[in-house]
Design brief:
The chain is of the alpha/beta class and 336 residues long. The protein is built from 13 helices and 9 strands. The protein folds into 2 domains: 12-219, Rossmann fold (3-Layer(aba) Sandwich), CATH 3.40.50; 225-328. The longest helix is centred in the last third of the chain and has 18 residues, at 241-258. 38% of the residues are buried.
Length: 336
């Protein structure tokens, strides 16, 4: 028996990859999305986002060929593009996205229902999970951000939903919710649900193996240098190209040290994500008027984009500045 889709406001539409994701993708291959709507849960695209082909291919196959029971886990180092990837995927295809950042004190009931006070009376309404399932007519993707930081007993409540069972809501007389055919679950995290293997994600917890076994698992690394060149060119087009290239080299050296891959630099307790890199490049341009004998604008911007987070740890600052000097020399930052 086919599910009744007449109660949903979303209307499916086929898009060419070029129309959905940009002219660098083929026009003769298609992906299913929804027609543009006034649904407030459809996210807006990020201004400087650029698609990694591997991640996009994985998301398309998962979205087209997966089922409700096929949840996806995007994991990788902080700031590598996990959340922005799924957000821009939903934006491109006009898919409603219901995101919730999890942590140890979040209870499963918070994902199911919300209780508010209105004129001294309690009003119960659906929360993230049933809304994504289509409880109010706008089915889409439930995004469990930082899944590996949640209490294992909380997220085990997703099991019945992943098996295609109705979601039972026990408060306020709300009706059980059947999952819409388009409903999916995506999780993001810094680990593959097996605990912190880097030593820098103190709140990451090892999750139940039965839970981890339910996910299509995708590793999202930091972008390749050529990819970040395109991002920085869009975000800070007036910076000299050589300076942008050197910034990317610095970022990758910091990342290698953070992940313990650089024997010379040693492990660092902070990293430079793509968003921090973009911030550094943009701030360098914004502060260009402050360049003087006493103010190095690249170092000035680097402090504000990243290094002030290492306040009180002079050895970290020294290690990062050593990386910068090795890549840029003593006179970094002069803008033409």
């Amino acid at each position: 028996m086919k599910p009744d889709t007449s109660k949903y406001h979303t209307v499916q539409k086929s898009y060419s990859l070029a129309a959905a994701f940009g002219p660098e993708f083929p026009d003769n291959k298609h992906v299913t999305g929804f027609e543009p709507s006034n649904c407030r849960f459809v996210p807006r695209p990020d201004a400087y986002f650029r698609w990694d082909r591997t991640l996009l291919r994985d998301l398309i196959i998962w979205w087209e060929e997966g089922r409700t029971s096929d949840a996806a886990l995007l994991f990788g180092p902080t700031g590598s593009g996990k959340s922005s990837g799924i957000r821009n995927f939903c934006a491109a295809l006009h898919i409603p996205m219901y995101g919730k950042t999890l942590h140890q004190s979040v209870e499963f009931e918070e994902l199911v229902s919300v209780v508010d006070l209105n004129d001294f009376s309690t009003v119960t309404s659906y929360s993230y999970l049933p809304l994504a399932m289509g409880a109010e007519g706008w089915p889409g993707i439930f995004v469990a951000n930082e899944l590996d930081r949640a209490d294992p007993g909380t997220i085990i409540g997703l099991n019945e939903v992943l098996e295609g069972q109705p979601l039972m809501v026990h408060l306020g007389g709300l009706e059980p919710v059947d999952p819409a055919p388009q409903f999916r679950i995506v999780a993001t995290g810094n680990s593959a649900l097996c605990g912190d293997t880097v030593g820098s994600y103190v709140s990451v917890r090892e999750q139940d193996m039965a839970l981890a076994d339910r996910y299509w698992t995708y590793y999202v690394p930091y972008p390749e240098p050529a990819f970040e060149e395109h991002i920085l060119a869009a975000a800070a087009p007036k910076l000299p190209p050589l300076l942008r290239t050197k910034m990317i080299e610095v970022a990758n050296d910091i990342r290698a040290a953070f992940m313990g891959e650089s024997a010379s630099a040693g492990a660092l307790p902070l990293t430079m994500s793509t968003r921090s890199l973009v911030r550094w490049a943009r701030m360098t341009y914004y502060f260009r008027g402050a360049e003087s004998a006493s103010v190095n604008v690249v170092g000035y911007a680097l402090d504000r984009a990243l290094l002030h987070r290492a306040k009180g740890k002079p050895e970290v600052r020294k290690a990062v500045l050593k990386i910068v000097k090795g890549r840029m020399g003593d006179s970094v930052g002069a803008l033409e």
